[in-house]
Predict the 3D structure of the following.
Amino acid sequence: MTQKTALITGITGQDGGYLAEYLLKKGYIVHGIKRRASMFNTDRIDHLYQDPHVENRNLILHYGDLTDSMNLTKIIQEVQPDEIYNLAAMSHVKVSFDTPEYVANADGLGTLRILEAVRLLGLTEKTRIYQASTSELYGLVQEVPQSEKTPFYPRSPYAVAKMYAYWITVNYREAYKMHASNGILFNHESPQRGETFVTRKVTRALSKIALGLQEKVFMGNLSSKRDWGHAKDYIRAMYLILQQEQPDDYVIATGITTTIRDFIKMAAAEIGMEITFTGEGVDEKGILTAIDEKLFTEKVGQKYLPALKERLSQSQSLSAQGSPSHSLSAHSLSAQLVGVDPMYFRPTEVDLLIGDPTKSNTVLGWKPKYDLQGLVADMMQSDVKLMKKESYLKEGGYQIMNYFE
Ligand code: NDP
Ligand code: GDR
């Protein structure tokens, strides 16, 4: 069998890194498009790096950008890919309210540029295209669970741009008989998740709090619900979609939804910390209410326990006084671990996502290996390890300098 060639846009992102590794293991030659940045931005694929001076490489990177059609056309012409995975996007929903025009250009028109390049280069029969569509298309709740037939109602510039990308993919499939498919992926996370998405923000912050490197974390809307899976499972679905004889659109989800609040509790419980939420809206607080000392010692380490117990005793004495939220503000080392800051609220929110993966289960034979508990465990284990490195550096006197002080 001849070796297949894949082109991944967004190879430096969470999904791009996992997908590149997965396809390389399957024997593909993988080409990736990366943006020029003022610092290295290849952390997620450094372990796959191959010296450009060595012959017969299987991983080849190209500088490029989804906003530059000439560049994309040139790369696609050069690579002649069997499969294109279009994962590149400005993928942060909140940030898309700050950069709506850019998002329309990169996430919306960027998809058109790829489809049109494949068409103009005469590759419509050779090249299969995967478009990274999203559960954000469902936006304002019309029905649950959300399936391939649920109407869209996007609620952010990001989702609106992705809606254009979704339909232009469908249109090129119908108009030019291209093998172009949408994966409507619900939220998927991992230790490689960007630090400003909610799950990773939580697992990083709780790890730092456990090690005494941070006092508390401020969050946005704690009541929204998400259907979270593991990125390692979801990139398998991308691959399966492109192996089908016919192109089509598929929901990839777990079918289980959880609030942000409960995700925080689960992540804390994973390392033996019990967090209880009190108050409402912007006054809501997550308080440390118990420690499973054995679990904490096993997952984090004995030496970090005394400081955390001190915080817990404050929590208990304050709640005995009957007014935790009022008294807490007086303490510099308080028992409050989570707060709410409206700066993280979105102008329009997506309240509830829960996917119906029946079609991908039956047609693709796709089933996730991780459940939410497994995902949380993987992320917490990884972030505790990461933050321990930071802790050791701090103990050794190597603190990150603030050059503006
Ligand atoms: P990330 O934000 O981790 O990665 C995005 C990638 O796109 C990065 O490699 C980034 O490069 C690149 N990129 C951004 N803008 C451009 C541009 N203008 N030109 C070229 N490359 C660009 O996202 P994920 O890996 O989490 O998601 C992958 C795709 O799937 C995205 O399209 C996202 O919108 C979509 N999606 C994600 C879901 C999720 O839960 N993760 C769910 C559903 C859809 P750089 O590293 O330089 O920033
Ligand atoms: P989302 O992911 O918007 O669903 O988009 P994100 O993790 O950013 O938010 C999920 C929910 O958590 C709430 N939230 C917070 N979110 C962030 N980022 N930071 C906070 O402090 C915070 N507090 C509460 C949000 O309001 C929201 O309701 C992700 C991205 O990967 C998209 O690219 C992808 O298309 C969708 O998932 C499916």
Remarks:
- Residues 47 and 199 are 24 Å apart (CA to CA).
- Residues 91, 93-94, 134-136, 186-187, 196-198, 201, 219-221, 224, 226, 260, 344, 346, 349-350 surround guanosine-5'-diphosphate-rhamnose (ligand 2) (CB under 6 Å).
